[in-house]
Specification:
By secondary structure, this protein is α+β, with helices and mostly antiparallel strands. The chain folds into 2 domains: about 120 residues, STAS domain (Transcription Regulator spoIIAA), CATH 3.30.750; about 120 residues, Thrombin, subunit H (Beta Barrel), CATH 2.40.10.220. The chain contains 6 helices and 12 strands. The strands form 2 sheets. It has a 6-stranded antiparallel beta barrel. A 5-stranded mixed β-sheet has the order 1-2-3-4-5, with helices on both faces. Helix 1 runs parallel beside helix 2 and helix 2 packs across helix 3. The radius of gyration is 20 Å and the shape is elongated.
Amino acid sequence: MLKVEANPEKNLLHITLSGHFDPQELKACADQILEHVFQLRPNFDLINDIRLLRPTDEEGVKELLKIAKALKKNGMGRCVRVVQIALSALQMNRISATAGFEPILVHTMEEAERILDSRLSQTPAVLRPPVEAMRQHRRASTGPEYSVSFSMGQTEFPGTRITNLSAQGCFAVLPSQWAGQVYEGAILVEFALNHPDLPPTRIAAKVMRLVKNLAEITEDDVGLGIMFLSPPPSFIQWVDAHVSALFAPVD
């Protein structure tokens, strides 16, 4: 099933894809989608709800890629994708990468709307900082007393251990029972550093990469490379100072 809605006031396109599509059905979908795109201004936002979309075959992928490229060519700006089925999310992520854009992955419509309404994604640069900026901050290894907490979709992660930290991000070890809950590109909200010497400020963060088979606790543990999204300057300065102190020699 295809459902398309355009909101010219918000300059927002909402596309819902659910069930299984054959290539001919997807060709018809492309025409319907572009009819709604023409109601919007350049740099429009897209919410792409694929929670109930089933994976498609090679021909279907080709048609979905044509749709993705047409959206990009006709002025799409930010894309937030609401996902649930892992294989469909992976398939659509590969299509987006080929089309030349990177969606923000979330698990609920509420998260999608909140991200588009927030300052966190008003510029794509926030989600993809230059390499030079990422190298400005020192990174230190951390002990077992360091952890983070965050929410993703309807799931809360109250105490996830981290193994290193910088003012730019951290690396967390997710126990095996939660391994299937996380996607690359997922936005983490209410993200907090759980340590008495670190700032209590809650921010947003993004999962930049997954590393499997860490074997730190069990062989199914998953590592999360996490980037902080637009933290306030006071947060950056505080974490930078803390990391520098970890490098300082002990008297």
